[in-house]
Design brief:
CATH architecture of the largest domain: 3-Layer(aba) Sandwich
Largest sheet: 6 strands, parallel
Number of helices: 11
Strand content: 15-25%
Structural class: alpha/beta
CATH superfamily of the largest domain: HUPs
C-alpha cells in the first residue's frame, strides 16, 4: 500500500495502472475510519483491480467552524486499517495541496440540494461537490463508493456527476450499525459515555416507526418519531422529514412516491447525528 500526499504523484501512479487496463475504485473519506468505511473499502477492493481511499477533512463543506476543528483525525490508525483491508493507495493531501487557490465554483443541482441538510447547512453541499469533483478529476475512477447514512449526499453527488458529465459509476452501500443499532459515524467518538448509551434510541425509533406507519399519515409518523426521540432529555431533533428517495423532496402523502425514506438529524448533546430508514409501501393505508 502506498501513502501519497501529492496530486501529481498519485496521478502518475494511477496512469501506470491504467496503462495495464486496471479498473480503479475510489472511496472518498474524511478519515477517523470505522467499520462502515471499511465495508466500502472491502467492496471497492472486491469490485476493482485498484482501490484508492482518500483521507481528507474538507474545510469547504463545514459551515460550522467548531465542527471542523473538533472533527476526529486519526491518520496513523486509518492507514493501519486500510492496509489490513488491502487498499492499494491512500491519498492524504494537505488543504494547500487540494486548494492551492480558493475554489470559487458554485453549483446548482436544483431542489435536491435545497432541503434538509442543504437548508440547514448553507454551503455544505457546494463544498461536497467541490471536493468530490476534484477527487474524481484526480483519480478518474471507474466506480466510487458512498455510504447510505449520508443519503442526501449521494443524491447530490449523482446530480453533480450528471451535470459535469463525469464518467464514474456511483455505488451506494448500506448503513453499517453498531450492535445496538447506532449508525456508525466518525462523530460517535465525540459522544460522552452517557450520550453513547442513549444515542441508539434514534435507530430504534426509526425502526419502530415502520410498524407504526401502518394506517397512519405521513405527518402522524413524523410526530411519532420526533416525540419518541425527544422523550430523552439529551436528544433534540433538528428535523425529521419523510421524502421521495429519488428527489429528496418532502412528501405529504404516501401515494406521492414509490420510494419513501425518512431522514433524521438529532443533536445528542452538541454532537450532530444523522440516520435514515426506508418505508415499505405495503405497510401504508
Amino acid at each position: 500500500m502506498k501513502i501519497v500526499d501529492k496530486i501529481k504523484d498519485l496521478k502518475a501512479y494511477l496512469a501506470k495502472e491504467k496503462q495495464d487496463n486496471k479498473r480503479i475504485g475510489l472511496v472518498p473519506t474524511m478519515g477517523a475510519l470505522h467499520a462502515g468505511h471499511l465495508s466500502l473499502v472491502k467492496r471497492c477492493v472486491k469490485e476493482n483491480d485498484i482501490c484508492v481511499v482518500s483521507v481528507f477533512v474538507n474545510p469547504t463543506q463545514f459551515n460550522d467552524k467548531h465542527d471542523l476543528e473538533t472533527y476526529p483525525r486519526t491518520l496513523d490508525k486509518d492507514c493501519a486499517l486500510l492496509q489490513a483491508a488491502n487498499c492499494d493507495y491512500v491519498f492524504v493531501p494537505s488543504v494547500e495541496e487540494m486548494y492551492p487557490e480558493p475554489d470559487t465554483r458554485t453549483f446548482d443541482f436544483g431542489p435536491v440540494m435545497q432541503v434538509m441538510e442543504g437548508a440547514r447547512r448553507p454551503g455544505h453541499f457546494n463544498g461536497v461537490a467541490q471536493v468530490v469533483s476534484k477527487l474524481f478529476y484526480i483519480v478518474e475512477p471507474d466506480k466510487a463508493y458512498f455510504g447510505e447514512k449520508d443519503f442526501q449526499q449521494i443524491a447530490v453527488i449523482r446530480a453533480m456527476v450528471n451535470q459535469l458529465h463525469i464518467p464514474v459509476e456511483i455505488i451506494d452501500c448500506p448503513i453499517m450499525r453498531e450492535a445496538d443499532g447506532l449508525a456508525m459515524s466518525s462523530r460517535n467518538t465525540r459522544l460522552t459515555p452517557e450520550q453513547r448509551q442513549k444515542a441508539p434510541l434514534i435507530a430504534h425509533t426509526l425502526k419502530e416507526s415502520v410498524n407504526f406507519a401502518a394506517g397512519k399519515s405521513v405527518q402522524d409518523v413524523i410526530n411519532f418519531v420526533v416525540k419518541t426521540v425527544e422523550k430523552e432529555p439529551v436528544m433534540k431533533v433538528e428535523y425529521y422529514e419523510i421524502v421521495d428517495g429519488h428527489t429528496m423532496q418532502p412528501i405529504q402523502n404516501w401515494s406521492d412516491t414509490d420510494y419513501p425514506v425518512g431522514c433524521i438529524t438529532v443533536y445528542c448533546g452538541d454532537v450532530r447525528l444523522i440516520d435514515n430508514i426506508k418505508y415499505a409501501l405495503n405497510h401504508k393505508a
